[in-house]
Amino acid sequence: MISIVDLVTNEKTEISDIVNYKNTGNPIHIVSEHPSKNDIVLIHLITAIPIDDLNDALDIDEQPRLEDNLDEDPSFLKLVLRSPALDASELLGIHRETTYPMIIFMLEQKIVSIQHSFASTKIRRKKKGKNPAFDISIHATLGIIEKVVSSFEYAVNVIDRTLDVIEADIFKTSFRYQDSMKKAFQLARSGTYLDAALSANLSALRRMSRLNLFKTSEEMTERLEDIIIDLTQQQELLIIYKKLIENSIDGFASIVSNNQNNLLKLLASISLILTIPTTLSSLYGMNVLLPFQENPWAFWIIIGISALMIVPTLILLRKLTLL
């Protein structure tokens, strides 16, 4: 199913076949979420965009870039971006896909966005400029890119909140290291994917900002510059969080190692204490003449001797901080 939004009236209709499509003459925004091959063919019939360019939207590993096809027929700009998944489980690296491709085709009377995991975008109407049709399409494109920025802000916030939970788990209990370590590695993986997507998106947007088409008005130039600045800020925050994640993983290793050492020292101390009564009981299990063997209080005497030998051992271990 494909949604078509009239950029002049903001009316939205859904079509499933070329027969249902009506050309009003106004600039339109064609939206396809989770595209199928039938959607790709339908978009091709409506826009005449080459099918090979549209098929790139089906590749989940497509990388961000900008392609300038303004000299061809039909003339269009093709902008490929990657957007974070909106599902928190995907963002945290539980699944393979942390970011998904999003392809925007900008034509004079039409704008096409094909996306896999992205919030719906409501385009605000702008005042008409010297080239009204392209002006509306450009502002619509910038509106979608701003939504991509918002999705990265959401993703970075999820990483921030999850990192707080993981760090709290480190110091709260000694029995959840395995789960916490797994979450930390998943978070590091997500951060790597998001950082790569941000870098590629910024590269494509900076190239786009150099096109004369996006310099037709000061408002448009400033809007695109603001988008680039916002994405740069998210990238800087992500770099900080990646460093914090690395520190958390190092902290895990140090705490686990320290606790293992403490546990080994405790077990060694307990073994040393138990050695005293074990040795005495072993001696009195020998079939030879022994002190107190005829004494009716022999058992309690031996227990008392063991206790007297254990007490100074405990005091010594305490002073050596082994207990």
Can you put this structure into words, describing what you see?
This protein has 323 residues and is α+β, with helices and mostly antiparallel strands. It has two domains: 2-257, Beta Polymerase, domain 2 (2-Layer Sandwich), CATH 3.30.460.20; 258-319, Methane Monooxygenase Hydroxylase, Chain G, domain 1, CATH 1.20.58. Helices cover 56% and strands 13% of the residues. The protein is built from seven helices and seven strands; from the N terminus they run E-E-E-H-H-E-E-H-E-E-H-H-H-H. It has helices at 37-47, 51-55, 88-91, 132-172, 177-209, 218-283, 298-319, and strands spanning 2-6, 12-15, 28-33, 65-69, 76-84, 99-106, 110-115. A seven-stranded mixed beta sheet has the order 2-1-3-7-6-5-4, with helices on both faces. A hairpin with a 3-residue loop joins strand 6 and strand 7. Helix 5 runs antiparallel to helix 6 (218-283). The termini are far apart.
The Rg value, from CA coordinates, equals 34 Å
> What is the count of structural domains?
2
Number of strands: 7
Terminus-to-terminus distance: 69 Å
Shape: rod-shaped
CATH class of the largest domain: Alpha Beta
Characterize the largest beta sheet: strand count, sense, and whether it forms a barrel: 7 strands, mixed
CATH topology of the largest domain: Beta Polymerase, domain 2
What is the H-and-E element order?
Answer: EEEHHEEHEEHHHH
Q: Identify the CATH homologous superfamily of the largest domain.
A: CorA soluble domain-like
Q: Report the uncertain regions.
A: 119-133
The portion of residues assigned to helices is 55-70%
Q: Kindly estimate the percentage of residues that lie in beta strands according to DSSP.
A: 5-15%
The averaged pLDDT comes out at 82
CATH architecture of the largest domain: 2-Layer Sandwich
Q: Largest beta sheet: what is the strand line-up?
A: 2-1-3-7-6-5-4
Structural class: alpha+beta
Task: Quickly count the helices.
Answer: 7
